[in-house]
Amino acid sequence: MNVAMYIKNELKKNKKGELFSAKKIYNKNFTGINESNYYKVLERLVKSGELVKVSKGIYSIPKVTKYGLLNPSESEIIQTYIKNEEDGCEVSYGLYNKLGLTTQISKKRVFYCNSIEENQKKIGMMYFSRKSIIFTKENVKVIEMLEVLQNFNKIQDLNYVAFYKYCMEFSEIYNEKTFGNVISKIKYKKSTLAFFEQILNHFNVNNNIKQHLSTLSKYKIPEWRKKHDFI
């Protein structure tokens, strides 16, 4: 069996529609083969339609339908990097929509995950950012809140009533230990933490966020309690 046929047969062991890293597969199965020749074989397989190049270094065995080759769906791409809940979570507008904070949508979807080797991975309009944390339900709730606060002024058509309600509900489940764990793994601006402290104080929640802030700094916090929304 020649080298090209060997590579082709090994790659066929991947599930159709499932994404794989060419570099990772090479390091696992083909180190005895010249790497340049390996990538030339991949190029030929793409040209013949036996492989789909999804993005740089990322490939997939295509599903074949009566209409032709079927590229991986969004859900299949997400499943590649976030197989289980603890592998990652969605942020940006996908998160804001889920929380009911805005009806605005974006073609760009952003995810935090702990499974990729690179710091960033882009596939089409999907962006994956590496965060070295286990995405437990408790951690995710804190991450979501901090992401909303950090991007508060960038959220288009923000529903202030929905935001106030979200903050009120979150204040009932706030956990200092979980918060400490999250900010030790994911860095947020000091102004975001000050914003968070103000919200917790507003709802009379005991917290020690002040210890993460500078007493010499004055943090600019957005106006989030619009009077006309709550009277």
Task: Provide an overview of this structure.
This protein has about 230 residues and is an alpha+beta fold. It is built from 10 helices and 9 strands. It has helices at about 5-10, 20-30, 35-45, 75-80, 90-100, 135-150, 160-170, 175-185, 190-200, 225-230; strands spanning about 20, 50-55, 60, 65, 70, 90, 110-115, 120-125, 125-130. The strands form 3 sheets. A 4-stranded mixed sheet has the order 6-7-9-8. A 3-stranded antiparallel sheet has the order 1-3-2. β8 (about 120-125) and β9 (about 125-130) form a beta hairpin. α6 (about 135-150) packs across α8. The longest helix is centred in the middle third of the chain and has 14 residues, at about 135-150. It is elongated. The N and C termini lie far apart (about 80 Å).
Q: What portion of the residues fall into strands of 2 or more residues?
A: 5-15%
| Main beta sheet strand tally, sense and closure | 4 strands, mixed
Q: Oligomeric state of the chains?
A: single chain
Tell me how many strands there are. 9
The helix-and-strand class reads alpha+beta
What strand line-up does the widest sheet have? 6-7-9-8
From the alpha carbons, calculate the radius of gyration and give it in angstroms. 23 Å
Q: Low-confidence spans: pLDDT under 50, at least 5 residues? A: none
Number of distinct helices: 10
